[in-house]
Amino acid sequence: MAKLYFYYSAMNAGKSTTLLQSAHNYEERGMQVMLFTPNIDDRAGAGTISSRIGLSRQAIMFASDCDLFVTVRAQHQKSNVDCVLVDEAQFLTPTQVLQLTLVCDRLGIPVLCYGIRTDFRGEPFPGSMYLLAWAEDLTEIKTVCRSGRKATMNARLDADGQRVVEGEQIDIGHHYVALSRREFDLPGTTPIPYDPPDD
């Protein structure tokens, strides 16, 4: 039975490296994979999945209106597809996450998605929210905050290295740092209002 997997972490934990290693493992056994990356992430060049340790390879770019089920099915009908891997999966739309469940359930192809859960204000990305809700297998790829605690949040920095807490949810680039929730200061960052009462 094919499953939908979601591998999640804070920024710079090695998600793309893990994805590329998984693709290599399938191909080393003579299996065919399809790799997807969002068209809005062109940090390493259009259609390129790249890791911080220097690994990279081409992938199929998807936009928000791309039907991933139809795309995978068309390729699978031409030549058997053994696994689908999606980088930066937080940028999937809820509809695309639903399409990926059908890749598993109707085509019998496992789907491995890699991404972050929340943005620079601690708000969930829609794609990640539905992956967390619908994936059979959830795996955290761990990384460490400057405090030494486990990093779970993603802080955005400006050109001077100062923290930014306002702006659009999506801002592609390398100007992020992974922090623990405590270092992130969730109450001072989230748009959810709460003022703790005095003792």
Q: Which tags fit this structure?
A:
alpha/beta; Rossmann fold; 27% helix; 199 residues; 11 strands; 6 helices; 3-stranded antiparallel beta sheet; 6-stranded parallel beta sheet
The chain-level structural class is: alpha/beta
Determine the strand fraction and express it as a percent band.
15-25%
Helical content class:
25-40%
Strand order of the largest sheet: 5-2-6-7-1-8
The fold-level CATH name of the domain at 4-142 is: Rossmann fold
Return residue spans where pLDDT drops below 50 for at least 5 consecutive residues.
none
Compute the gyration radius: what is it? 18 Å
Helical run tally = 6
CATH superfamily of the domain at 4-142: P-loop containing nucleotide triphosphate hydrolases
C-alpha end-to-end distance? 54 Å
Task: Give the overall shape, derived from the CA principal axes.
Answer: globular
What can you tell me about this protein's structure?
The chain has helices spanning 15-28, 68-78, 94-105, 126-134, 181-184, 186-189; strands at 4-8, 33-38, 48-50, 56-58, 60-62, 83-86, 111-115, 137-140, 153-157, 163-164, 176-179. By secondary structure, the chain is an alpha/beta fold. It has a domain at 4-142: Rossmann fold (3-Layer(aba) Sandwich), CATH 3.40.50.
